[in-house]
Design goal:
One of its GO terms (molecular function) is homocysteine desulfhydrase activity. This protein is α/β, with parallel strands linked by helices. The chain is built from 15 helices and 14 strands. It folds into two domains: 229 residues, 3-Layer(aba) Sandwich (Aspartate Aminotransferase, domain 2); 133 residues, Aspartate Aminotransferase, domain 1. The N and C termini lie far apart (56 Å). Bound molecules: pyridoxal-5'-phosphate.
Length: 409
């Protein structure tokens, strides 16, 4: 990435730091009205000066030379484009596309990559709605899927068929924070000419950049860390210019575009991404260590702990271990709820990645409609807790956990 000088000439300064990229990455130095911040361009359609201007635009578009100019809001927006450029800079990607939610991004990729008769591989522990879309919805359209456990590369290779088009994984996963060995995954997929997609919502580009390891596309629910304030829904995908162009074609048909106000909020949130994630990494590590040593906690999952099954992979691939800690309380369902209810700082809420800490008992939140046997078959026990740490001071968070745990018998 290069900075532009006042005169518009590229300087030789290469921006490497994630925080500088989060503030300046992909930015136009010159905004309308000399504004430092890109404006919110609130328009659904775009006008032409006259018919000659329209025809020149149509000709240029036909040859892919419209220079980002569009004629209608579903095909692009300058505020959204500013966000896309920032995300591409953060991920080290050629291009990025923004969507109205993380799920709009996930489904657009799957629609764009698969057709009837195709097969895909998805790893266990993927986001519940992604799994549902792949295993139930896509099946109705003749797309078959195989689920393989993260880290089992023999099972992954064995699952590959001649018609396998895509491998979809998440890292770290929810709720067990499993970390995929992306180098190994990319090597296998390249050899077999299969596209790889990684949902790195839990990682953020501050902790892990999947494209650096040879992955084709990275997805984020920008609702989480990228926007970071629990106040907006968005999704982004980054990758090669070719793949992103294909995705835009799909988006032009199925919709799911990001509103310019929402894009502005994500762009604003992104500026502090590195600062926030560094604090969240610190909070994650401090809380994971505290809980591991606590007699009223049965088990802790955090990739930064040597006890985590993927600690070695996480140390090799990640620059930080994230702000989510999952643990089992030494109590039954009601005791675990009493502990949660006794906390003062985290809100009881789904989602993660924002400045406010959020806590949930997955059995009573995302998995409530399942019966206990179904839940325990996928490892969701009644005493399981997922804590998404915000940017509060670690000592306050630890004191809050200590006082709530002290109430347990
Ligand atoms: N991917 C992951 C890992 C998630 O946790 C979520 C939502 O929780 C999504 C995708 C979907 O994102 P959104 O809620 O923005 O549609």
């Amino acid at each position: 990435m290069e900075l532009q000088t006042e005169t518009g000439c590229a300087t030789s300064l290469e921006i490497r730091g994630p925080s500088t990229r989060a503030v300046h990455g992909g930015a136009e130095r010159h905004n309308p009205y000399h504004a430092v911040v890109p404006p919110i361009v609130q328009t659904a359609t775009y006008a032409f000066r006259d018919t000659a201007d329209l025809i020149a635009f149509q000709e240029a578009r036909q040859w892919g030379a419209a220079g980002g100019r569009v004629d209608y809001g579903r095909y692009g927006n300058p505020t959204v484009a500013a966000l896309e450029a920032r995300v591409a800079a953060l991920e080290g990607a050629e291009a990025a596309a923004a969507f109205s939610s993380g799920m709009a991004a996930v489904t657009a990729i799957l629609f764009a990559s698969l057709r009837s008769g195709a097969h895909l591989i998805v790893t266990e522990d993927a986001y519940r709605r992604t799994r549902q879309f792949v295993l139930q919805f896509l099946r109705r359209f003749g797309v078959e899927a195989t689920v393989v456990p993260i880290g089992d590369f023999e099972a992954l290779e064995a699952a590959i068929r001649p018609n396998t088009r895509l491998i979809f994984t998440e890292t770290p996963t929810n709720p067990y924070l499993r970390v995929m060995d992306l180098e190994r995954l990319a090597e296998i997929a390249r050899r077999r000419r299969i596209r790889t997609v990684v949902d790195a919502t839990f990682a953020t580009p501050i902790n892990l950049r999947p494209l650096d390891y040879g992955i084709d596309l990275v997805i984020h629910s920008a609702t989480k860390y990228l926007s970071g304030h629990n106040d907006v829904m968005a999704g982004v995908v980054a990758g090669s210019a070719d793949l992103i162009a294909g995705l835009r074609e799909m988006q032009a048909m199925i919709g799911g575009i990001l509103d310019p106000h929402a894009a502005y909020l994500v762009l604003r949130g992104l500026k502090t991404l590195a600062l926030r994630v560094h604090r969240q990494n610190e909070n994650g590590m401090r809380v994971a260590e505290f809980l591991s040593a606590h007699p009223r906690i049965r088990r802790v999952w955090y990739p930064g702990l040597p006890s985590h099954p993927d600690h070695a992979v996480a140390r090799r691939l990640m620059r930080g271990f994230g702000g989510v800690v999952t643990f089992e309380v030494a109590a039954d369902r009601e005791g675990t709820s009493r502990f949660i209810d006794a906390l003062h700082i985290p809100y009881i809420a789904p989602s993660l990645g924002g400045v406010e800490s959020l806590i949930e008992q997955p059995a009573l939140m995302s998995y409530y409609e399942m019966d206990p046997e179904e839940r325990s078959a996928i490892g969701i026990t009644d005493n399981l807790v997922r804590l998404s740490l915000g940017i509060e001071d670690p000592d306050d968070l630890l004191a809050d956990l200590e006082q709530a745990l002290a109430r347990l018998p």
